[in-house]
Amino acid sequence: MRVSFTVNGRRQQADDVWEGESLLYVLRERMGLPGSKNACEQGECGSCTVRLDGVPVCACLVAAGQAEGRDVVTVEGLADHARQRSAGADAPGTPLDEARRWTAHGHPAHPTHDAATPAAPAHDAAGPELAPVQQAFIDAGAVQCGFCTPGLLVAADELLERNADPSDADIREALSGNLCRCTGYEKILDAVRLAAVRQQGGT
After folding, report:
1. What is the per-residue pLDDT across 86-144, written as a single tens digit (0 to 9) for each?
2. Helix 132-139 and helix 186-199: axis angle, to 10°?
3. pTM of the entire structure?
4. What 8-state DSSP symbol labels residue 63?
5. How far apart are CA 168 and CA 81, in angstroms?
6. Residue 199 region, left (φ>0) first, then alpha (ψ -120 to 50), else beta?
7. C-alpha torsion angle, residues 28, 31, 36, 38 (rounded to 10)
8. Which of 6, 83, 114, 135 has the fewest Cβ atoms within 10 Å of its own Cβ atom?
9. CB 192 within 8 A of CB 156
10. What are the contacts of 193-197 at 24+ separation with CB within 8 A?
11. DSSP 28
């Protein structure tokens, strides 16, 4: 079957999708958007979290056909989504080719600079800007292996969109479906707190 839906602000379609195929599989394997991670495939870890019509969901549990005609935001589109939200604009979104090439400039997958050399800031012209929550995760040291990070970012961004000044309890509840085995969660909480302060105009 053919499935058509909006991904990061752009209308996309996938052909020859079989009935049992998940939204996660379509995003990763058919649309070339690997940011949402394939881990437990049971909706337990949150690594595949995306927003479906604004609501965080585990993409591994959503049948591709259920996304027909709906709006999906993945971690690759977070920066553009945040930019549109800030401007209150109805922009066309992130082109699929651009999303596929997305990297956090200054923070390559295999960095070559030594510890004494500071990484380039997020506003460097070498690549796209980061969403505020993405930059906060970097600045707070909330990223280690990075496997859980995309899902955490999507969930945290959604929290800050609906609650600009979340309590620690709010943050814990919003991220309760996202598991991390590296950080002990404190740095992640710090990152969301930092993003919230910056969103309110603080430093």
Report:
1. 887 554 456 656 656 655 444 434 333 333 333 334 444 445 689 999 999 999 999 99
2. 130
3. 0.81
4. B
5. 24
6. alpha
7. -10
8. 114
9. yes
10. 193/168, 194/136, 194/139, 194/140, 195/132, 195/133, 195/135, 195/136, 195/137, 195/156, 195/160, 196/160, 196/164, 196/165, 196/166
11. I
- For the chain, what's the residue count? 203
- For residue 93, give the 3-state DSSP assignment: coil
How far apart CA 108 and CA 66 sit, in angstroms, is 34
11 phi and psi angles, rounded to 5 deg: -70, 130
Q: Which of 38, 40, 39, 16 is nearest to 27 (CA)?
A: 38
d(CA 160, CA 153): 10
pLDDT digits (tens, 9 = 90+) for 18-65: 989 999 999 999 999 999 999 999 999 999 999 999 999 999 999 999
Query: How do residues 142-201 score in pLDDT, each as one tens digit?
Result: 999 999 999 999 999 999 999 999 999 999 999 999 999 988 899 999 999 999 999 988
